[in-house]
Specification:
The longest helix has 16 residues, at 323-338. Helix 13 crosses helix 15 (362-377), helix 17 packs across helix 18 and helix 18 (452-459) packs across helix 19 (463-475). The protein has helices at 19-24, 35-44, 61-70, 86-94, 107-113, 151-163, 180-189, 208-216, 233-236, 252-264, 290-295, 301-307, 323-338, 348-356, 362-377, 400-407, 433-447, 452-459, 463-475; strands spanning 4-9, 27-32, 49-52, 55-56, 59-60, 76-81, 99-102, 170-173, 198-202, 241-245, 266-268, 275-277, 281-286, 310-313. By secondary structure, the protein is α/β, with parallel strands linked by helices. Strand 6, helix 4 and strand 7 form a beta-alpha-beta unit.
Length: 481
């Protein structure tokens, strides 16, 4: 089988985290940091998709999009940015970009847009961490692996398996982070459309006029910047599945046009005169109570009824009992393998903490927390302090903590556990908080190979805060990686 080829036009640090996964999955990966290098790779090994930062030193993605406009066989281009905005997204999409993403790059999303053996783009559903009985629920070849055994999730999964083969629309509701998109991929993978495209559209990410073009496509010259015909997501999802994520954020005028597609199976491109028939299974997600939005006039009642043929409500993680521990162990195993660390044990104190925390961010928060804990524990047992939620209980790293203890005259017993990923027992009299903060931030940068966005996510702070801290450290003469 021929490998799938992709080219990244970006700094190497942008792909450090996912590179091993791509290679293990059989991708041929190229990396260029300027336009000349990109053209050389394209000429030598024609990629299926190019993933490009908006700009690099001496390069802007407009050059690549202009080249693609002149060559109909040019690879698809996905623009990704660590600090994107709607106007930038609109600009590049109008110039012909296939999509616009925010970092960090996700392996599953890359798989979803890169075709296999020259076929059309096809989704490769990622591993799901939504819940369910591992032994009782088999996965399809490309389907999710289900983790967990909570009864509430079992009921949702049982209904999902029953309706997956149908064409019925499904409205998936639940708090942010409960896994609504992953559940949508589960439905697609279990359906008779699994061999066709799964396309997800975030209805909250784009302004109304751009979302209309994204969904239904547009004709050349239909608006300023429409330099060529563009097929919409509904056309691209023909005979497959489309996910309308955060459907509640869609403008009322656009809701009316969506209703026509659902009822009649046809659409008009923006600026077009031809009616296009589509056969698409529609899934939608929301973290709002749409019934209330209907009463308030913010969502069309007829569209709500059309979407809510099959309602699936995902339980919050705090309602799923021991699934929290099972999911935590799953993520810990995943990240210890990803970062080539020894298998990590979880202390009884950490297990107790996981069971009692209320998980406002649900499964997404748990996953991020376990990645952080694996990195900070460094192969040692995971303790509550590795979750970095209590500033009075932060761990120290490597020899820096020991040096700080020695500098303050603290005896060796008080330094036990420091420097090996352990937590130790210490307070402000041992090491000042601002020094601890510096140690953690520099360690976060080291663990992410200097990627500011990933480091900020790992540390639980904003990128702006991280940059301000780094500027402060530079002014103090600290070398920043």
């Amino acid at each position: 089988m021929s490998s799938r080829r992709i080219l990244f036009l970006a700094p190497a640090t942008s792909i450090t985290r996912i590179f091993p996964q791509l290679k293990d999955a059989g991708f041929e990966v190229g990396l260029a940091e300027n336009y000349k290098g990109a053209l050389a790779f394209i000429a030598k090994s024609r990629p299926d998709v190019i993933f490009s930062r908006p700009s690099l030193s001496g390069y802007s993605v407009e050059e690549l999009l202009t080249a693609a406009e002149a060559d109909k066989d040019f690879p698809s281009i996905v623009v990704f940015s660590d600090k994107g905005n709607a106007s930038e997204a609109e600009k590049f999409l109008q110039m012909g970009a296939h999509d616009y993403w925010l970092e960090p790059l996700l392996f599953e999303k890359i798989c979803a847009v890169v075709p296999e053996q020259g076929t059309k783009p096809k989704a490769v559903p990622p591993t799901s961490t939504l819940g369910g009985n591992k032994a009782a629920i088999p996965a399809t070849d490309n389907g999710p692996t289900i983790i967990g055994s909570n009864r509430a999730m079992q009921r949702v999964l049982a209904l999902a398996r029953q309706v997956a083969p149908s064409k019925a629309t499904v409205l998936i509701s639940g708090e942010s982070g409960t896994g609504k998109e992953m559940f949508s991929r589960y439905l697609h993978a279990q359906s008779d459309r699994a061999d066709n495209s799964f396309i997800a559209v975030n209805c909250a990410a784009l302004p109304e006029h751009l979302l209309e073009s994204e969904l239904f496509g547009h004709e050349k010259g239909s608006f300023t910047g429409a330099i060529s015909r563009k097929l919409g997501k509904f056309e691209l999802a023909h005979n497959g599945t489309i996910l309308l994520d955060e459907i509640s954020e869609m403008d009322l005028a656009l809701q009316a046009k969506l209703l026509r597609v659902l009822q009649e199976g046809e659409l008009d491109r923006v600026g077009g005169t031809e009616t296009i028939k589509v056969n698409v299974r529609v899934l939608a997600t929301t973290n709002r109570h749409l019934e209330d939005w209907v009463k308030e006039g913010q969502f069309r009642q007829d569209l709500y009824f059309r979407l809510n043929v099959i309602p699936l409500k995902l339980p919050a993680l705090a309602e799923r009992g021991d699934d929290v521990i099972e999911l935590a162990r799953f993520f810990i195993d995943m990240y210890t393998k990803e970062y080539a660390l020894p298998a990590a044990q979880v202390s009884s104190e950490a297990i107790s903490w996981l069971k009692t925390y209320n998980w406002p961010g649900n499964v997404r928060e748990l996953q991020n927390l376990m990645e952080r804990a694996v990195l900070l524990a460094g192969g040692n047992a995971i303790e509550p302090c590795h979750f970095l939620l209590d500033p009075d209980n932060w761990p120290l790293f490597e020899d820096e903590g020991v040096e700080e203890c020695q500098a303050t005259g603290t005896d060796s017993d008080s330094c036990s556990g420091l420097g090996d990923g352990g937590c130790g027992n210490f307070n402000g009299s041992v090491i000042p908080i601002h020094e601890m903060e510096r140690i953690l931030i520099l360690k976060g940068l080291e663990q992410t190979s200097g990627n500011r966005t990933q480091a900020a996510d790992l540390l639980g702070i904003s990128v702006r805060t991280l940059r301000n801290k780094l500027n402060e450290y530079r002014s103090q003469g600290v070398e920043i990686p």
